[in-house]
Amino acid sequence: MFLALGKRVAVSAARARAVSAVRVTKMALTQISSAKCFEGYQKVYEHDSLELKCKMRFGIYLPPKAERVKCPVLYWLSGLTCTEQNFITKAGSQQAAAEHGIIIVAPDTSPRGCNIQGEDDSWDFGTGAGFYVNATEDPWKTNYKMYTYITEESLITSGQSVSALAPICNPVQCPWGQKAFTGYLGSDKSKWEAYDATCLVKTYSGPLLDILIDQGKDDQFLAAGQLLPDSFITACTDKKIPVVFRLQEGYDHGYYFIETFITDHIKHHAKYLNA
Amino acid sequence: MFLALGKRVAVSAARARAVSAVRVTKMALTQISSAKCFEGYQKVYEHDSLELKCKMRFGIYLPPKAERVKCPVLYWLSGLTCTEQNFITKAGSQQAAAEHGIIIVAPDTSPRGCNIQGEDDSWDFGTGAGFYVNATEDPWKTNYKMYTYITEESLITSGQSVSALAPICNPVQCPWGQKAFTGYLGSDKSKWEAYDATCLVKTYSGPLLDILIDQGKDDQFLAAGQLLPDSFITACTDKKIPVVFRLQEGYDHGYYFIETFITDHIKHHAKYLNA
Description:
Chain A is an alpha/beta fold. Chain A has nine helices and nine strands.
């Protein structure tokens, strides 16, 4: 499973043959908001998560085409500090999604309101920083099952294409990852590798991947050694997995960077999703 | 002066021949943030406003073309509750501005931090709700000089084209306008008309206007009688002033509506600004 790539603002995609009103209804969703946008609808739903044992929200953009036929789904996994709101309000993704007939699901990034001691103590661990892992350590293991939430409780059926914007490529080797994985997974580093894209790609034997990564050259977290794209590229090169890595001169880590390149990423996925 | 049109999310435009690094420097600006976006830069500046007697912030998008030549400027006047941030983070305007070589200035909507009694008591009056008027009543008249701030202290040199998204077309006749104008301007209603687009257009004798208005049909504030576009259209028709008014089926008052149509508005202004 390749969703572990790009803890920050990663994009992964899946053909969702089964997405339908019936399937959605089964999740017992409560509509929080709905606004017309580029002739489709940007909605936010809330549901009780069985895996996370709390109420969760996600954003979903339904392109106008979805009123007539089933459409493929792109999953946007936001990064540190984000809720389901950041991407849907700031990325300007809806125009390209409408054009290519793609549904975009933007989940939240951690369980919410679980009242776990220390969950709000830092911005890079706990609330807003689930790192898409299944925690095995107390007090996190009861609720912090983000890996299962994203891969099983949501509607992802198969990974097809992958892209990322300024991802944490090798969390095992960076301060953010070491802090989070120690807290959620304990001190046995061999257990960390299942959630590290660079480690995963070294043993990858699934379908052919087509990976697109954009990275701002002036991203402060690149300079701080938190993102480590070189490690990932080296691992991909060794495995002969093609990666298009674009180091974008002058861009930082913020949403103006995302907004600038999101259309390229949606086009990248549309090639496969609409094939 | 036609800037009074569209208290909410109005767009007006001006040829800014004098916009240059020198001119900007004279305003004693402090750069708060700068992020590359569509090969240009989205910046936020702070400055001491002489008119408003407080520090003010505004957003400015500089398209890549602005590095080589002088570019025209479009002024985006946000509506109730907004700061300089709403438009620049949510509207997705930068792509079209980059394409057409247009600078977009997004000022704040009221004085800030003036410690006027009652300034934060309601969301539709005081902080975040300056209504672009020059207040004449205590305790507002010392700081609330938004009309002069926008038309003189900023760099607007001449009005050329105008457009608006879900504007308050006839504030003299709606609850928002009546509350604000009573508070800022007093009970003499004849003084209100200078800030009401519908009243202004009845006596307009300036250059030919080309007005574009988009209005969501499901906008809750349209149904509540706060926006009154029919009054404005009737006044324009009587004066033979052309207005393209598009009632957009299913759209509400939020930024997903703005995001959907902002490119059309930038194109509308680009016709004149780049002529």
